[in-house]
Write a structure and sequence with these properties.
Blueprint lengths: L19 H13 L26 H8 L7 H8 L3 H9 L11 H8 L4 H10 L7 H7 L3 H11 L9 H7 L7 H10 L11 H11 L8 H13 L20
Helix pairs in contact: 1-12, 2-8, 4-6, 5-10, 6-8, 9-12, 11-12
Amino acid sequence: MAKTKQWGSTIPRILTPESEDRAVQHLITYFREGNYAGASFERLGGGGDRPEVADRITADDLLALAMLSVSVGGFAAREILMRPLADEISDLLRQIPHSATIENEEGRTLLTERDGAASRLWTSVRKAGAAAPQRMRRAQSFGPVRTSKLLARKRPHLFPIYDSVIGREYGADGSLGYWAFLCAQFGSAPHPALDDRPLAERLRDLRRRAGLDQNLSLLRVLDVVIWMDGTDAGSDVDAGETVDINDEDV
């Protein structure tokens, strides 16, 4: 699908100071009240970024996607976990320092570097499922939603999650440009819509007020707050976490 709306400077209302109490309650509902399996996404099996597995995709990483209601087909799983694609992905992960985050210049440079390791990693993961029979390829393929969630599992402080709710709340169609947009948001001067505070400071405040582990990535805080508000999930704790992945694009 062609990109019809650009990623601009829009800040979803839920992130603004007047919505702070609601945003904090979203985080409490999601992470502290046991209502959502996704609360275990980053730390399932000890975490996808722990040193001994940070540079390779494991079965735990694929299982973690299920915490976000994203299934992984057998053909795609086999390709990701076995040679040659597994080796290609691991080689690229090794080129992305564990110290790189979207909060620092090192990470933002990686995310915005054309044909850099991060961009090539995205492209490599997108290959998964390509060997599936034609009739199954659409369901097996790794589009932006599956890909972004898998990368976020390996480098939770660097790679943002993208789905249709995120795109809609930011007023953008498609994932193209999301990395550069968020890099600008995290690296920019204080934002007027946030009472002239930087986005990272705002997210840290929400995390602190919700009483969450300080190791929880700010990107996950951002994702959950926007997703909860964008689906009105905070008013229905039995709601699923499924997003539309059938029209994954760009």
